[in-house]
Structure formats: structure tokens, C-alpha cells
């Protein structure tokens, strides 16, 4: 399964903040991490935060695209059936967020 995220490194806290919609209308999961965008530190923090939130080992997640970009594609190993409810919970109700 692939998850599309928008990363904000250098934040005050690590948090998954819901959905963010790009200018072309594509939704992405918004993630803030305190790690700086330096030598993969922010990517590692994103993977750790997502793994914990999804109840998966860190080894089940990899950055498939966008290693140096805010817009990333995360590859998640596992059953799509079991991941969908967890991802929906992370995204929350899109009507509750200012994108």
C-alpha cells in the first residue's frame, strides 16, 4: 500500500495533523516532526511516527518517493484490509481540518 504524505520537518512536536489538500486537489496525510531535514533525520522520524500510529514495525515502512521533498510517498508492507481502518482514523474527518 502507498500512503501520500506532506511532511513538515523542524516542528515543535511530532504529530499527524489530518489531511492536507494540494493545489491540484489531491489529499495527503499531514505529518509534523521535530527532526530537521538533514541527512534523512526527518524521514526516519516520519517513518517512526507512522509505524507507531499504525501498530507496525518501522521496517514495514519505507520512503518510496520524495526523500528530499515535503511531498512523500510511503510504501507500507502489510494487508490493505487491516491498514485501511487505521489510516482512516489517522486522517480523521476532512471536514474538521483547515487545509
Q: What is the fold's blueprint, element by element?
A:
Elements (H helix, E strand, L loop, with lengths): L1 E7 L6 E7 L5 E6 L8 H14 L6 E5 L5 E6 L3 H12 L8
Parallel strand pairs: 1-3
Antiparallel strand pairs: 1-5, 2-3, 4-5
Strand order of the largest sheet: 2-3-1-5-4
Beta-strand residue percentage: 25-35%
Could you say what the CATH topology is called? Conserved Hypothetical Protein Mth637, Chain: A
Share of residues in helices? 25-40%
Any idea what the CATH superfamily is called?
YggU-like
Number of strands: 5
Largest sheet report: 5 strands, mixed
Architecture per CATH nomenclature, i.e. the level-2 architecture: 2-Layer Sandwich
Describe this structure in words.
The chain has a single domain (2-93), classed as YggU-like (Conserved Hypothetical Protein Mth637, Chain: A, 2-Layer Sandwich). A hairpin with a 5-residue loop joins strand 2 and strand 3. The longest helix is centred in the middle third of the chain and has 14 residues, at 41-54. The protein is globular, with a radius of gyration of 13 Å. The protein is 26% helix and 31% strand. The relative contact order is 0.25. It is α+β, with helices and mostly antiparallel strands.
Amino acid at each position: 500500500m502507498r500512503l501520500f504524505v506532506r511532511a513538515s520537518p523542524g516542528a515543535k512536536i511530532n504529530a499527524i495533523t489530518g489531511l492536507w489538500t494540494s493545489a491540484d486537489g489531491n489529499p495527503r496525510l499531514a505529518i509534523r516532526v521535530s527532526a530537521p531535514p538533514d541527512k534523512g533525520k526527518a524521514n526516519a522520524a516520519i517513518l517512526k511516527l507512522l509505524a507507531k500510529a499504525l501498530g507496525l514495525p518501522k521496517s514495514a515502512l519505507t520512503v518510496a518517493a520524495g526523500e528530499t521533498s515535503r511531498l512523500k510517498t510511503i510504501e507500507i508492507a502489510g494487508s490493505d484490509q487491516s491498514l485501511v481502518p487505521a489510516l482512516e482514523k489517522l486522517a480523521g474527518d476532512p471536514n474538521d481540518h483547515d487545509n
